[in-house]
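re: ur question from earlier - yeah i can do the single chain one, its not a big deal. heres the input i used so u can compare w yours
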Amino acid sequence: MSAATTISPSTSTTSTSSPKDPPPQIWIPTSTPITLLPTSTARLYHHIHPILLLSLFYLSFPLLVANPVSTLSILLFPVAGLQMLYCVLCLPIAKNGVLPVKAKAKLKPGVKKGKEMGVVWERVVPASLATLLTFLLASPLVTIFLILFGAPLTTHFAHNILCGTHMALLMFQPLFYVYGVDAVMWREICSAFLPWDGVWGGTVGTMLGAWFGAVPIPLDWDREWQKWPITIVTGAYIGWAIGRLAGEFLFKGMRIQFDT
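and the output i got, formated as tokens:
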């Protein structure tokens, strides 16, 4: 006979203690509001620049209504030139992809002011590169966004490219000049987390102005200026000027906060 053996389950339980989850990483922004160059030329042209740009657009508006493609094409070069001049005269330059937080290099008392113009010429090449990046990278990107938001693709292809290029010049040319291609800075730009200043305010204002500029297009007023993309470009320029002022005087140093 075989003795029946009963195997009782073990009453001892082993507790597996899982390590605590690491705390979530908090993204701390490193950017600061852009400070103008500490020169009298920078302070003067900083106020003259929007007047010149808006005056140029205002004087060209009748031609824009009559022939949008030709007028927008002709305006590209003076607008790009004025934006380059603003970058060279007023904004700190990106060095090795790193933003100099503040323009600390002031002219010493013993240095002639003629040296200031020599420094200006050293900024022309970076400003030209920023303009080239704007045309090659930012302009196609903005054009794609315009199409995704409802721009006519097949019938107004040239209009879309020119509209996107004008918006890119207003939005991205100064950003390329100041921030270069630094990945950390462009992460903050793409997440709309830069602190407000004149440059970032102009970028945000251009986007909002173009968006509001689309409002008159579907209205049955039968006006020539309602044609695509006249109101979009007009709204972009007006929004750029308003956003620039808001970034300088109302919201400077603040950041756009998104509720989660």
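The radius of gyration is 27 Å. not sure if urs matches, ping me
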